Amino acid sequence: MTALSGPEPALPGTARTGPFIDDVFETVAREQVRHALQQLGIAFSEPLTVIPSVTSYVYMFESDVGRAVAKCSILGKARSSLRREGGVRARELGEITRAQREYAAASSACLDEARGLRLLTGILGTDAVPRVIGLVDGVLVVAAERASTPSVADRDVPDEKASEASAYAVGLLERLWEYPPARLEPTDADAVNRAHALGMVGTFRRKFLRGRHRRYVDRVVPSAELARGISSLVETIARTPWPSSKTMRLVYGDFKPEHVLLREGAQPMLIDPLPAFGWRECDIARFLMRMGLLSMSDSSRLPLLERVCAMLAARLPDDLDARLVQWFMAMDFVNIYTTRVCFQDQNQLPGSWDSGSVTLETVAQMASGLRTTGGAADPYSLAVTTARLGDASCPSEIGA
């Protein structure tokens, strides 16, 4: 989550966790977004469609400036933190709303992300970066665009330059855990990569190497196994040709510097595929990763992503790029592990889910029954025809 300044008011009430609390904060976030849109003079139409996020409250909507996305951070805390720390009763909704407005007015919520987007636009001079429409009261509003699956004919054949770009990205990822970010090349185009490195290293050290977080990691995923898991993912990326600029764009989502990489030629690359709705390879990767995370058992410690990818590659339709799915899954998993996110948000999943009852077998059965509609996939209508993950294992836990 982007570092925020300003007060962090304590949440009132008694300790409770679960969907009820999230419903309360969801209501507060929606009202905050509506208030911000009025402040910006943007006429919009209901409904505000939820874009799944584990850190903030994100909504897509139609407006007089076109389709847009609004992102709201509640009290400067991730949603999982709000669930753990907040005890909220329904009669306290008004108090929470007032606290949120006071916090948003006194803080720089989303300011760094807005600056990051404008920085990217200035460096790249391209429409690949979402346009910032406005920022007010801690709500960031950007222009939205539905991603589309490129046709096979539009995809470039991997060449030497693509391989060099892939090697560059892998080297950057490896250096995140080995060297200070200052070791990166000090070029204008690499400024975003330095910001990415700073963000990833800072998050990794803060959330994995200090105090109770370190004890949590030692309990859930021993550090040696974590290192091997990340190393395995980097190797997966290294063996996967870097997607061409024709098939990769920066799309709306969590607008953090550490979610952006620049390839050679200053082409923007997306490191967090969660919000790339409509791009079928992205949809499949997101679905498999999050369903897999809900399927984790206490006895499974080491991520076996390569095994899952190998089984997946043999079962995708010919018009989909299995290697690109693998690339998305690997990058997504690196992002998940380094941000220590808790994936227990029911809003991310189709229907009503009990995470304790989800198994890899039920995931495989569900995946095998999903189909695309009209060529462009709905977020949960995925082009997975006969994917059966068998007894492939996933890590035991991500968030506390």
UniProtKB/TrEMBL annotation:
SUPFAM superfamilies hit by this protein: Protein kinase-like (PK-like)
Source organism, top-level taxon: Bacteria
Protein name (Swiss-Prot/TrEMBL): Aminoglycoside phosphotransferase domain-containing protein
